[in-house]
Amino acid sequence: MTFLPAEKLCLSIVVLLAIIDGSLIALWGVSVDAAGYAPLIGIGVGTILVGQFYRVIRKDERLALAAIAVGIFVLFTLTGSILNYLLLPIQFPVIDGALSRADAMLGFSWPSLIHWVADFPSFSAVLNFVYFTSLPQMMIVILVLSFVGDDRALHRFLVTGLLGALLAMLFWTFWPSFGTSAYYVLPEEIVQRAQLAVTPAYGAELKRLAQDGVAFLSPRDTLGLIAFPSFHTVMACMSVWFMTRSAVLLVPTLLLNILMVPAIIIHGGHHLVDVFGGALAFALAFALSGVLLRSLDAGSMTRPSASELRVR
Question: Angle at which helices 96-105 and 272-299 pack, to 10 degrees?
């Protein structure tokens, strides 16, 4: 198989996470929904193999870049989410109280915002839709960068995403937080009118997991655990930054992710400061990814470019 240096780095991270996941599953005695995870693993591995076919056999580097990047993204999402769950129950005090106080200092009240948006159910429905576009946006960015042949930007995108997620998990491990929905009580009528994606019942389940941990892992039951820093914000920043390569898609991507900010707070059940934390996590991950990729380039001066691979 032929992998570019950045792809090797990303795959090494995925393999390391898989080893850690397997070790912790055995150590904690956690049951796993193998039938549920198998198709997802198959998609990840399968798309990487498709990428190898197009790189080695068909000599179509654009399709190879796209398929391999999608496979890495899928496998990292799986191994990362499993590790996040295996870090439960939490071992350190939650910081939601401090985050709520920081919101108050900024003059922000999450319950007041939800009461307001409940009077505009159509607008709330739009934000609900926007909230769930984060992962599709990631796939679109991968395809755009692949098919314009910008392998360097694509790999910067991938490494930034992996580092952003790892930084979020690392911070959350020592300073856990679960967001506003786990701590604010809202009238059921308001919850229904606002059509919240993350409800108080969702928050209650997060608090249970924080105390009891997980006994059974299944992709069907996966919840977003991390409040601060908001990884949805990291993904929004990534989409906008890297979509600057497409003059056609930049403006709609920017507009979509402007709406993503209130969507994250309302439908993600986030503190306002979680968004600032996510933006900071993106900036740090982006800077670190540049350092890592420059280091890889320095250590592999004969690294073939996408254009060179296409003509071989």
Answer: 110
The SS3 of residue 32 is strand
The answer to whether 206 and 255 have CB atoms below 8 angstroms apart is no
CA 53 to chain centre: 28
Q: What is the pLDDT of residues 136-166, one digit of tens each?
A: 999 999 999 998 888 999 999 999 999 999 9
**In whole angstroms, what is the distance from residue 255 CA to residue 213 CA?**
38
Helical H segments across 196-271, by residue range: 200-212, 231-242, 247-267
| Rounded-to-integer distance, Cα 132 and Cα 43, Å | 21
Q: What are phi and psi of 217, to 5 degrees?
A: -100, 125
Closest CA to 176 of 213, 135, 138: 213
Under DSSP, the state recorded for 4 is -
Q: Which amino acid is it at 302?
A: T
Task: Return the DSSP state at 90.
Answer: P
- Give the count of beta carbons closer than 10 Å to the beta carbon of residue 197: 19
Reported as type and span, the H/E element at residue 51 is helix 34-52
| Cβ–Cβ under 8 Å, residues 10 and 158 | yes
Three-state secondary structure along 175-199? CCCCCHHHCCCCCHHHHHHHCCCCC
Q: Kindly report, residue by residue over 242-292, the tens digit of the pLDDT.
A: 998 888 999 999 999 999 999 999 999 999 999 999 999 999 999 999 999
- CB of 155 within 8 A of CB of 293? yes
